[in-house]
Design a protein that fits this description.
Blueprint: H1 75-105, H2 109-137, H3 141-146, E1 148-152, H4 161-183, H5 194-199, E2 201-205
Antiparallel strand pairs: 1-2
Helix pairs in contact: 1-2, 2-4
Length: 207
Amino acid sequence: MSFGDPNNPYGQPPQGQQPPYGQQPPYGQPNYGYPQAPQGVPPQYGYPQQPQPYGAYPPPGMPGMGGGMPPYAHWGRRVGAHLLDMLIILGPVYAIVGISAATSSTGEPSVGVFMSLFVLVYGLGMGIFQLVREGGTGQTIGKRALGICLLRETDGRPLGFGMAFVRKLAHILDSFACYLGWLWPLWDDKKQTFADKVCSTVVVRIK
């Protein structure tokens, strides 16, 4: 039965039948497309809500930051985190190299070979460990200690291992022109190095 049926003078759809697409139901009639919550019951308690339009959701960001990007980390914190990471990797390496040199001079070459192998395994393993942490969480040990985090500029999320590795290679650009790229965060609006700009990354302060 259609709405123009002379037997249906009030223009109301039959029971259980929805009005045509794009047409609102007559005044006082329920919206058959979305079940209505009882009077006084919030819609989130078991009743579906109206769909939100595209773009109505807040942009992603760090947890607890209200959907926005945290403030950019200043140059001093970045340098401190980098030096701490280098100390964690190179400190034990230099200590072991010194021990290896001392034992080699006493006529025990086998100890020196073992120490050299240990240095290689430790340095490579710790470097990969730091890269995995930085790609997965945005923080190396040094960055975590200094309260900073490496994120993608587009959505505020960690880079992943692959892009973290690419960013390390991109640091070659920072060493060109008398290491100008390493100093670029001192006056850049987003505190980015050349590697950050190429990889679309930012370093932010989270505490």
